[in-house]
Predict the structure.
Amino acid sequence: MNDRFEISLLLDYYMELLTEKQQDIMNMYYNDDFSLAEIAEINNTSRQAIHDLIKRCDKTLISYEEKLKLLEKSNIRKTKKNEIVEKLTNEYMLSKELVDDIDEMLEEIINS
Amino acid sequence: MNDRFEISLLLDYYMELLTEKQQDIMNMYYNDDFSLAEIAEINNTSRQAIHDLIKRCDKTLISYEEKLKLLEKSNIRKTKKNEIVEKLTNEYMLSKELVDDIDEMLEEIINS
């Protein structure tokens, strides 16, 4: 399996591009922490079949990220936001209150 | 065909999810303004085949937008950016120079 944390982040961005069944199983494995054996039992199939499905979905998610780079772009936005906040504080010398307000508004932008 | 302008916007977001051949033909049609007949001749196929491929790709792009909403989210970010700029000008009474600087930094965020 690939890095659990990275895959669970990619799931946030590309979940909707998986089939409903794939979404269910990926959610059980990465978000609800079910074991392969548990997921296999719930889905009335083998541990190996679930393992293969998850591996295939991992690859699909990684391939979407290689093409659309949504996670990478989101990280760039966060970095830029922090740079702006720092600049407003240290270079433009705005009050902490005002910077906090702007920070909150920027947070809304990068989360939308 | 669907709305040309909307499809050309969606192409900006989802182009990478099309095959190379689809990308070429969609580019010729939506960005380089070739006619169906011209694209058919270049690709050594029928006008009808090109028409069908474009219609299929239109549907694919619309379906990606329904799932990922990247265009919608980008528009939300632009609106939020304009709201921030207006608020900094009219509510926080920052100088035009400072607001312009912040505006420029925000532009970088929403374009990344």
